[in-house]
Amino acid sequence: MPTDEARGKQEQLDPSRARPDDGPLTTNFGTRVDDTDNSLKVGERGPTLLEDFHFREKVTHFDHERIPERVVHARGAGAYGVFRPYESLAEYTKADFLQGPDRETPVFVRFSTVAGSRGSADTVRDVRGFATKFYTREGNYDLVGNNFPVFFIQDAIKFPDFVHAVKPEPDNEIPQAQSAHDTFWDFVSLQPESMHMVLWLMSDRSIPRSYRMMQGFGVHTFRFVNAEGRGTFVKFHWRPVLGTHSLVWEEAQVVAGKDPDYNRRDLWEAIERGDYPEFELAVQLVPEEDEFRFDFDLLDPTKIIPEETVPLRPIGRMVLDKNPDNFFAETEQVAFHTAHVVPGIDFTNDPLLQGRNHSYLDTQLIRLGGPNFEQLPVNRPVAKVTNNQRDGYGQQRVHTGRTSYAPNSISGGCPVLASPDAGAYVHHQERVDGVKIRKRSESFSDHYRQATLFWNSMADWEKEHIVAAYRFELGKVTHPEIRERTVERLNHIDHALATAVAEGLGVTPPAEPAGRNHGRTSPALSQANSPMDTIATRRVAILAADGVSADQVAVLREKLSGGGAMPEVLAPHAGEVRSAEGGTVPVDRAMSTMASVLYDAVCVPGGAESAATLGADGLARHYVAEAFKHGKALAALGEGVEVLRGLALPGLRLAGAGGAVVEDQGVVSSTGGGAAEAEEVVAAFADLIARHRHWGRDSDSTVA
Ligand code: HDE
């Protein structure tokens, strides 16, 4: 149960919540209205009158309903939740919200894509934003991260160039939410520091199955500061309890059409169901004296600290348990800012972070219309706000008293300054000497070694997906020199990668490696090593038609739901189907309203009549074949096996007569119709679903 502290933010929001049943219709100035369908006119067919204040207010308000969308990360979805540390981190930081498990801090999280507009599809190939606002007792702390641990550029001054390059091209505003176009590849191929992040972008990390199944990273090296003033470098990691899982590219493209709100809907529905998304917060801690012990610069945001070098220390857990009441008021108006920090958390001189500390405040001023955006309900800290900032558009506070300056004597010097002992923020004291200079540090100049590390760490199937992604993206590029230049860059990462991409593009592969692959790996980077031990919240399609075995459907439903999965019966029509046993089976959805790509797994139960109907139904066949193509778990029982057999799925071994359970390439089947076989098949099916996808099928064209 959330504590009073965790509920604090919701209680603060209560007075701002407006209910539609809270009295009759009024104008914005409270006058009741008896007709909102007809404007005030001179005669029934005459002109509308200027004095129709209701008409003018209603339409004028409507005319002004839009605000500028975020210049990046415009498309997103948010949720409230709670963060609780496992233990005190007092040794490293004095941040109050990290002082022990008795602290429960309310949070608001916004997940987002980066390049697309507000109305763009969720499942595009892109980085995902993972921004968390902790409403701590000491003020708001914003951890504005991404689902990749590195960034494209090293200095914030390049951000406008990068964003201009990835956004739709300026002459025709094409393509929407895609990096597969000339200007993006032109820029990154000329900017070798981007190569590491681009490799992540070409990996499956850029098409997460769910916001609940992706990691988050603070990216920069930040600094913890303890009560004695000692600093410790820190990297933040969010780890999803459900593991890190992705779609495949072709699937992601189809989902973008079938359900453009795929990730947003998934988050919303999970929270509505009570399947609260959970993330563990972990940190990598580096003592300040170890600043120069790495073969990269800790201040360089294109670098990770490999987990094998500095292990992750889990420090707490976040549970997202409440959807917003209003998308605009909360998810759209939430304003994150990297400089929203609390005592005990400080910056480093990472030039990207330094630039962000300017940009996030600046952007809210234009986006939210002025300096009072911190007073919007979602942004208000639960900590008390007292200062001499005054006035401005949309001022919500009624400041009393005669003074709005410091020092003053008229108000007894109030508000008084806090001492560090009373919780004032004290910037970490770091000695900095130098000449003014517009130059990148030499220590930022290695752009390839960590890209090679990432590549080396990938499983074979991940490498295949990466090569296919480069081929796809560069295949859309019309300037041959951009393709060639990119291949040349890839040759610095790995010769085999460059060669494979070149071959797909019809570009001459580089004759020799540009350097020697160092051969190092970091297993933590591979999604193949992510936890795969649960079927919780996985969607499973059970295909059925008249004559389906109700007993088998019942076993499937019961066992899969028991493991936390979400089985749904899909049939050629909604309503119900007749069962083989003479009763009926309720249908959750008509097959035509959904798609195979919207499920994690598909199964076909028995019943001769049902199997015959499905085997002759193009859509049902497509459900099975597409799931197979996308590496998903499949199961077939009794006569349902014939539906799979009829598809002649390449190289697939299916159960024959006799009822024995056969498992091959992530497909489990048994022709036996009995309860024992059903139980055995469903148990095996659950294991296969938990493993997310099954690569290397004989027909593996999942990457195309
Ligand atoms: Fe952002 N970024 N960013 N960014 N960013 C914005 O702020 C910016 C960067 C990130 O859900 C903007 O309120 C600069 C890295 C997230 O509301 C803007 C630079 C990381 C979100 C901005 C970066 C991020 C933003 C646009 C380079 C991961 C969405 C609207 C120096 C660590 C937050 C807004 C939300 C949003 C600037 C680079 C994450 C313009 C100048 C690195 C998750 O201020």
Automatic annotation (TrEMBL):
Q: Where is the Catalase core domain?
A: 26-414
- EC? 1.11.1.6
Give the SMART domains listed for this entry. Answer: Catalase (SM01060)
Identify the keywords attached in UniProt to this record, alphabetized.
Heme, Hydrogen peroxide, Iron, Metal-binding, Oxidoreductase, Peroxidase
> Which reaction is recorded as catalysed by this protein?
2 H2O2 = O2 + 2 H2O
Where is there biased composition of kind Basic and acidic residues? 1-22
Binding of heme occurs at R70, R110, F159, R356, Y360, R367
Q: Does the keyword Oxidoreductase apply?
A: yes
What are the start and end residues of every segment in region (Disordered)?
1-36, 510-531
The signal peptide annotation in the UniProt record is none
- UniProt cross-link 3'-histidyl-3-tyrosine (His-Tyr), position: H337-Y360
Question: What InterPro entries has UniProt attached to this entry?
Answer: Catalase (IPR018028), Catalase_AS (IPR024708), Catalase_clade2 (IPR024712), Catalase_clade2_helical (IPR043156), Catalase_core (IPR011614), Catalase_immune_responsive (IPR010582), Catalase_large_C (IPR041399), Catalase_sf (IPR020835)
Matches recorded under SUPFAM superfamilies:
Class I glutamine amidotransferase-like, Heme-dependent catalase-like
Q: State any GO BP term from the record.
A: hydrogen peroxide catabolic process
* Gene3D superfamilies assigned: 1.20.1370.20, 3.40.50.880, Catalase core domain (2.40.180.10)
What highest taxon heads this organism's lineage? Answer: Bacteria
Positions of the catalytic residues: H73, N146
Q: Name one GO cellular component term.
A: cytosol
Identify the PANTHER family for this entry.
Answer: CATALASE, CATALASE-B
Quote the function comment for this protein: Decomposes hydrogen peroxide into water and oxygen; serves to protect cells from the toxic effects of hydrogen peroxide.
Q: Which family does it belong to?
A: Belongs to the catalase family. HPII subfamily.
Name the UniProt record assigns to this protein: Catalase
**UniProt organism field:** Streptomyces marincola
